[in-house]
Structure formats: structure tokens, C-alpha cells
Amino acid sequence: MKNIMKLFLGLSFVLYLGSCTKDYLDINKSPNSPTTPELNQLLSGSQYYMVQALSQGNFIGTGLSSYVHHLVSREVQNYGMTPGANNTFNTWNYLYTYVLTNYDAIIKNAEPEGNLIYAGIAKTLKAYTFSVMVDLWGDIPYLEFNVPGLNAPKPDNSKDIYNILISLLEEGLENLNDAEAENSLKPGKDDFFYSGDKSAWIRLNNTIKLKLLLQSRNAKSDISEWQSMLNALLSEDAFIKANEDFQFWFNNVTNPSNERHPAYESYSGQHTYFISPYFYETMMGQTYNTIDNPFAGIEDPRIPYYFYNQKYGGHGNSPSESPHEYRNGDFISIFFATTGPNSGGSNDNSYTKFAIYPMGGKFDASYLYDPEEDEGGENEPDPDQRVSTKDGTAGTGIAPHKMITFSSLKFMLAELALSGETSADAKTLLQEAIIAAFDHVNSVVEKNGSANPAPKISNEDRDAYIEAVLTKYNSSNAEGKMRIIMTQKWIHNFMNPVDVYTDYRRTGYPLFFDASKTQDPGFGVNPTVTERSDARVPLSNFATFPRSLYYPTNSETELNPNITQKANLSIPFVFWDKYK
Questions:
Q1: pTM over 0.85, yes/no
Q2: What burial class does residue 341 get, using C-beta atoms within 10 Å of its C-beta: 0-12 exposed, 13-18 middle, 19+ buried?
Q3: Is 141 found in the same domain as 272?
Q4: Residue 86 half-sphere exposure, CB side, CA atoms within 13 Å?
Q5: Is residue 441 a part of any domain in this protein?
């Protein structure tokens, strides 16, 4: 219920920005049959709902993060999502009820009136939204969606929907490129992504189309004219540019509604989601729980921007309030699939939190302290002065929900090059992708400003890291190179688990936590052993990785006779899922 209220409060904020709140509500008495809309009201509302449905703090953004080993959850342990876990207010329902219906309403009303920019934007976003739903669920209703009087739409084949979505993107591009578009009604502040910049929308449209072609590259025979479309896109080279990320910025406004990043709630109350030790060790270049870490020996400069340790071990190792399950220096968390006795203890004031980059939390300056450069210890951080985040006052909540960033575009192009689909240099594209990923971290630092100060990552630290990564890349075989590209993309896409989930099922990378590849095979390894916390952490047998999500139980399989629940999730349900 808390998330639902957040959505309605958020919508109030959207309507405030677009004004004319009464008119918007009047035309949405039935969200499935809007009449004559105010286009600006529909666009802002649907964009905001789309972001909320996909971002952290709601079903997809939290539960799915455990599947891709960004986070660990007591509630979604060991790929344990059941059909009943998809309640009636999950991502599926928000996208179908509040987002796609309104995109259809914009298209229906904008095109006949010659408002081609609105029509082109709505078609572009409709294609993106449906593609995400196909990637998550496979076969879903498309052709019979939003048909008046039809209450039990039949699902369409996922490959057929992809082909339709590519055509829809092309229609949207025609709208945006139409000579008459310049004379039509133009979005402004009601467009949260590009403020009505037609050229930016054209580039995003091309980028989404590239993403769909990339994701279907192992099933290209299922996509009409796959190769010719890819060649045309690459020849035109009109994709999103630096600082043109497809993302939504949350801010630090708390009144009249809370507009901070949805994951900012993790700073207060009971701890539910924990940062994966496997993810942390990958970035630290350690091998306690991943003996084949592709970045072994390389410490990522982004770590203090990703993770904030509530404890600092300078004086006496600052013990946690309950026995810890996993402690690595001052990083404290629990394991995926844990059955250990210390996983359920109350450590809300000890567990590591999100830092500034994921959701506008605190920057952890303790990582920058070097005792060798401070002989007298005069500048050592005082553990008694560590900021306790539990009261929710640390940080700002200023951070974006990223959907397709410029960095992600470069990673996509690197994958295409390495897989032989293009003649570009994959190594150069990987380098450009990591540079863009670091720039993205710095953009969050800049946006937080003096309200939540943090230093930008220096070019010197960035370049030293990239040089070390590229050295690993040069010495790897083709599979190792693909693992490095996709693992770097996984690190960048923290808080965007949807694309990571898709990438893994397409390519087999990044490799996720494997209990047989710890320094104590079959067990999780706790690096910091104390009288209360053992080195060996027992884990349950890992469940089979889910190749798609169950359909929502309450809203679909129990009410729609044309949708049959999947018997299990161990086999592919999406047409592009060809990786074995």
C-alpha cells in the first residue's frame, strides 16, 4: 500500500507541474477509456507512472535485483519468486492500466489533429514499454490490449510483438521527421525526458530500435529484415549522445509529496534489501566468493559512490549490534540463499547502505583514507562521527532512474562488435562505455551539489582503472572478453535490473554468484571472523534460474481465461532466449 500511495502522490506532483489537474482527472474517470485528453497531462502522467513501475522501490526494481545479484533479499531468496508474489498492483498492472492506455490515448488524439511530435513520442514510449514487458514475461496481450469491451485479451507471440514494435518505432520516427511536425503542438515541461526536443526523441527512437535488434541477435531469423535494419541504423549513426540519457531524475522535494528516489526509503525503517557481497567483491577485485573474478586485483574507484558503510573500523573494528553474517572491512551484508544463523539478526544500524550514485545517499569518504599517507593518523576518520542513516536524514534522494544511458549504448555497440555483427573495434567501444559510466556517476555528484557534497572521480583514477580492465581484456579469449563487457555493463546498470536480467538470458553474462566458486566451495565466505561470526556461512542449494516471470495471479490468470500460468520458469519463454 505504501508504494501505491507513493504513486498517487507522485502523480499529484506531475499534475501540479502540468497544471489543470481537474481536467486531467476528469478525462481519466475510467483509465481504460480516456475521452478527449489534454495531451500534456497525459504525457507527463504516463511518463511518471512508467518510471515508477520500473524503478527501485516497486516490484521490478526490488525483487528482480535479487535475481541479478545486485541485491540480496530475505523475501525474494534464491530465485524464490512465486506466482502469488505478483500482486494486483505490480509493474504489469501499472504499465497496462496507467501507462500504455494513455500512450494509446495520445496517439489516438494527437495524430488526427496533426500533433505529430506528441504522436511520435507516444509511439516511441509505447514500443519501449511493450518491449520491456515482452523481455520480462514473453507472450503477452498486444493486439487485443485496450480494445473496448474486450476484457479477456489473448496473448501474442513474443517474436510477433517485437516485429510489430519495430514497425511502431518506424511509424513514430515518421511522425517526428514529418515536415509538419514543426508546426504542431510541442511538449515542454510535460516531457520529463527531453522537454519536447524533437531531435533527441529521434535519436532515442533509433537507440531503442538498436536495443531491440541487439536483444534479438541470437534469433535474427525471427525478425524481418534484421540485418538491413541494423546496417541502416549503424550507417546513419544517429543515436543518443553524451548527456542525453533516457532517464528520470528524482529530487529532494518532500512536500507536498515525496519526490526522492524510491530506494531512498531504504535509509529508514527495517532493512529488507541488502547489497550483494558478490557484487561488492566484484567491484573490489576480490576473490573470497568469486575465485574467477574477471577484475581480480582491480579496485573500482566507483565503490564509495555506490556503497556507504555505516560502520568504520578505525578504532576497535566498530562491532555490529548483532553477529554479522558477512563483513568485509566495514562492508556488512548477508548472502544469497543463506541458511546461516546470523542472516536474520537486527543490524539496521550496521548494514551497508546505498551511497550517492544509486539513490542520492551519502558518499563514503572513508574509502579514500590512506594510512600510509597519514603517518600520525591525524586525518583518520573518527568512527564515532560516522553518519547513522537510519533516521532517513542522510543524503538527498537526488538520483536518476536510468533506462538507456549513453554508456549502455556504448556497451551495446561493443557487444555487437565483439559478436561479429559489426566491423567496429569492441575494445575501443568498451573503453568509451566505461568512460561514459564514470561520467554518469559524476553527473549525480554534480546534481547533488553542496546539499550532498562529494568529489568527482578524477580522470587519473578513472584512466588507471580502465587501463587495468583493458589489460585483462587483452589477455582474454572471446568468451572472456564478452564476460568483461557484460560485467562492466552490469556494474553500470546497478538499480536497472531489467536490462541485466535480459542480458544474462541472452548472453550468459555476467556470471552470477556460484557457491561452488568460493574459497570454501559450497559455503559463503565471511572475510571478517569474530567470536560471534564464523568464516563459513551455510547456503541452501540454488534453485533453477528463472527464464521469465510468472504472469500476475490476481489480475490475469485468475480473471483472464485466455492466459494460462506457466508451469515453471526453467525453460525459455521469450523468443530471443537462445543461450544455453
A1: yes
A2: middle
A3: no
A4: 24
A5: yes
